[in-house]
C-alpha cells in the first residue's frame, strides 16, 4: 500500500497538513471569498459593456466610447502584477490568510465606491478619471487574491485530492459571474429602460458591502496554510521571494502565464463584457434585449462552474496536463461555433454558444490551482502562482474585449474575432506541452530540492 493511501481512503503525507485541520471549511472559505472577489470584478466588466460607454465616456461617441469603456477593463490588469508582487512578497513572508482578508476588503471598498460615482454629465472629465482609479484598486486586489486562495485550498488538501480541493476557489470565479450577471439582469427587470442607466446599475456595486462582511467573516475563521506554518516554524521564509523567483524560475513563470493566457482571452469574451455589449448594442447587427442576454450569460456561468469542478476532479485521476489537453481541444472547436450561434440573433442559440464554450474554459481552468501549486517550490510558491496568474491575465484577458471590439469594427467580421481566440487557444496548448505534470509531488518545504527539478518537458 502506498504512503498516500490507507484502508480508510486518501491521507496526506506528514508535514503537509495538521491532522485536525478542517479541510472542508478551508475549501468552502476559499470558494466564498473568491466568489465575492470576482463578483466585484465581473460587475464592473458587465457595466463596461452595458452602461459605462454612455455614462462616463459619452463625448467620445458611441463607437469609440465603447472601446474606451473596455479599455478601463483592461487597464486594471496592468496593475495585477503589482498586486501579485505585493501579495506574493507578504504571502511568502507573513502568511496566506492575512493577505486574503486584505485583498477582499480592498476589492469590496473600490466596488462600492464605483456605485457612488457621479457621471460625466455631472462632473465632466473627473468621472472617467475616478472610475479608472477605482478600477486600478480592483486590479491590485485581484492580483493578490487568486494565488492566496488556491494555495490555502491546495496546501490543505490530501495529496491525492488536490485537483478536487483546488477546484473550490476555481468555481468561485463562475459563481462570481453568476451572481454578477443575475444581479444585473434583476436590476434590468426592476429598473427598465432609462431607470437602469440612472440607478439600476449602481445597486449591484453597492451590494458589495454586504458581500465584504460575509466573505471577510468566513475567511477569518480558517487556519493558516500548513505549508506556510511549517516554513515559519523552520524560519525559512525567503528574504526576497520575488527576486528569488525570477532568478531561478523565469521560464516557468512565463510558460505558466501563457497557459492561463490561452484560457483568459476566450473567457473574457463574457467575463470582460464583450459579448454582452456586442449582442445588446442598439446600433449593432443584433440589438438583443439586455435582460435576455444577461440571463443567457448567467446560465453559461452555471455550465462553466460544472465544467470547472469536473476538471478539478478529473485531474486527480487523469493528471493535470491531460485534463488541460482535453480542455484545449474543446475550446478550439467551440470558439469557431460561438459567433455563428450568437449571430443568429436568437438568444437561446446565443446561450447555447456560451454554454458550449464554457466546457473548454472549465477544463482549461479547473486543474489550474493544483497544477500551479505543484509547479512552484514552497519558498516562492505564493509569488510564483500569483505573478504567473497576473501576467497571464494581461497577455490573455486584459485587452481581449478591446482587441475583439477593434477587430469587429475594423474588419466588420466576427469570424476574425474567432480566429484571434483560436490563436490564443493554440498558445495555451503549446505552453501546456512544454511543462511536466507533477501530480502528487510533496509540497512540504522539506522537499524543496525535488520541487526544483522535473519542471520542463524538454529536460529529464
Automatic annotation (TrEMBL):
Stretch forming the signal peptide: none
A Pfam family that the UniProt record links to this protein: MFS_1
Location in the cell: Cell membrane
Chief place where the protein resides: membrane
Source domain of life: Bacteria
CDD domains reported for this sequence: MFS_ShiA_like (cd17369)
Keyword tags: Cell membrane, Membrane, Transmembrane, Transmembrane helix, Transport
Record keyword Cell membrane present: yes
TM spans (from-to): 38-57, 63-87, 99-117, 123-143, 164-187, 199-218, 245-266, 293-313, 325-343, 349-372, 384-405, 417-435
Statement: the UniProt record of this protein carries the keyword Ribosomal protein: no
Sequence ranges assigned to domain Major facilitator superfamily (MFS) profile in this UniProt record: 26-440
InterPro entries in UniProt: MFS, MFS_dom, MFS_sugar_transport-like, MFS_trans_sf, Sugar_transporter_CS
Membrane disposition: Multi-pass membrane protein
Name under which the protein is recorded: MFS transporter
Organism name: Nocardia rhizosphaerihabitans
